[in-house]
Amino acid sequence: MDAYTFLIQVLNGIQYGMLLFLCAAGLTLIFGIMGIINLAHGSFYMLGAYLAWSLTERLGNLWLAVASGLVLSVLFGLLLERLLIEKLYRRDHLYQVLLTYGLILIFEELRSIVWGDDVHGVAVPAGLAASVPLTENLSYPVYRLAISAVCVVLAIGLYWLIQKTRLGMMIRAGSVNREMVESLGINIRLLYRVVFALGVALAAFAGMIAAPVSSVFPGMGNQVLIICFVVVVIGGIGSLKGALVAAILIGLVDTFGKVVTLEIAGVKLLPELAGMTVYLLMAVVLLWRPEGIFGKKL
Amino acid sequence: MTNRHALIVALSVVALVLLAALPAFAEKFYVQLFTKILIMAIFAMSLDLLVGYTGLVSFGHAAFFGFAGYLLALVTPQYQAASLWLSLAIALAGSALLALAIGAFVLRTSGVYFIMVTLAFAQMLYFLFHDTKIAGGSDGVYIYVRPLATIAGWRPFDLENFVHYYYVVLALAVATFLLLWRVIASLFGGVIVGIRVNEHRMRSLGYPTFRYKLACFVLSGTLAGLAGYLATVQFGFVNPDMLGWHLSGSVLLMVILGGMGTLIGPALGALAMLVLEIAFQALPVVGAVNIGKHWQLLM
Question: Which CATH number fits domain B29-298: 2.60.40, 1.10.3470, 3.40.50, 3.30.1490?
């Protein structure tokens, strides 16, 4: 593998990892702050991708689609929290798993009714359709670079929001002691609703910007969900920093697992077993630190 | 209390008699449906040992179910029958070993981590069979001939016969029920329930809780393997979906719907899920399938 191919794979890995981070960030925030294990998180990713597709068809422009899609997904998140998730705060994890698993099935059915079961593609927006030439026959699409850049900006923004603002302070306080924050006169219900909507919006946004590079297909949410779980487990539940590190790590491991060939004693291991690499990584991390890289001690 | 106890025993006996008499009056379709229900009941009971009694919410239980099925597929020569005894022993031993290996990892975690990590391990196995050429990759593989139950030339029953097969499954489901019932009533059962209620206290009482949990995990995985083996025999094929998380989710639903911490509950949950599935499939509206089934869970 020469240097340019290597560079391309590193960029691909980071871009994939950053998308995973956007999804996993919502998952880990919702868990870390609200104590909710949300299996339906992948569905929000799917929702985002389908919104991007159908709104681009209607509005003719991905930017407009993303903007309006974001508004829709925030509203959707607020509504969902108000109607269903709110009932789960005092419930056992088992019931959270049950309800959110039910939600996955419901969302899949609704998706199938509203948008059908076909695979769709979204065109890369005109301004970003170019490629950066690397060598005579290798180039790298600008759009993928743009995805990574946007995600980095969002990650920094998220860090700033949680660590440096008053809202972030309230959110962090709410995760430590709900009653205390409530007794200080802060509307914790509203706060939770905002966090949930934020998580939904992040996942949906990831789905929207990923739509032009992957395709839009049924079941896409589940794939992402499970990888996001792995990210959250590796990074440590509730830790944004952990989610970022783990997401990049997984992005790179997954990408390289698919392009590197590895043979031990005549048995082809990679890329044949590429699907397993991220789970193996998780197993290793769990052996080393069961609470995840940046998790609190169990 | 004794009255209630007597009622339960009486109901169980009636249910058992009805189940035993089923092939006498039901059509083939219903006998096969009940075979499937009993298999899923074994599966759900095995999971209940973890979820309901030990307090370990496993979201990857299909791993053992599917793995045993794959083992049967791998030991069955093409177009020929495998030996029931040998293949069953391999499938059970295989799922027990798998449960031991996975359990040693996942039991280091607890709570939400446990849910996610069991899911991730099941997915790992899913990709192993999905991405590689072992047993047909993503298409799965067909088993054309059911295993033969021959002991030294004598064949006590024929699995190709759907009534015979129904009785085999019924006997195994009852055996599973009795086994789990005895386990739970034993000192071991007391310890695992203690672990669910307060693991720290059990540990300070001197019980090596990790080993107890691991033993539970292995027993549960082995029984799930039994269910997977039986399902594979019934349907005659395996594919990666048998390891998938949809199945893990469905069986968890059966356990919770039926009532965890009881053995009969998950079995009834399996019955309810499969009957509902068929009832909803008859409905013309696609969306009603899931919405009808899951909105009632929101209470």
Answer: 1.10.3470
